Amino acid sequence: MDKLNVLFFKASWCLPCKTLEPIIETVCKELNIKLTKFNVESSPDIANQLSIMSIPTIIIISNEVEVGRIIGATSKNKLLTKIKSLQENYDNKHQE
What we know:
Layout (H helix, E strand, L loop, with lengths): L4 E6 L4 H17 L2 E6 L4 H6 L7 E6 L2 E7 L4 H18 L3
Parallel strand pairs: 1-2
Antiparallel strand pairs: 1-3, 3-4
């Protein structure tokens, strides 16, 4: 079984992306969740496939299925709350 994975979509010119990037890195490190970053300029096919319309966008994946999406810059506390909630749901389902 896969654990939760976080996909972070950004662009080099995006100021909110630059603000959010160290925050999502810290959150993923604290929660021991894999983080994969995509630059929408160099990975447009992936961005299109996942319907990325705005950046920054964070997609949370469980077993190759999207279980959460956060669009726009947000605070560390909001990210932690959202991802912890998804992680707890994931852990509860996979402890059985």
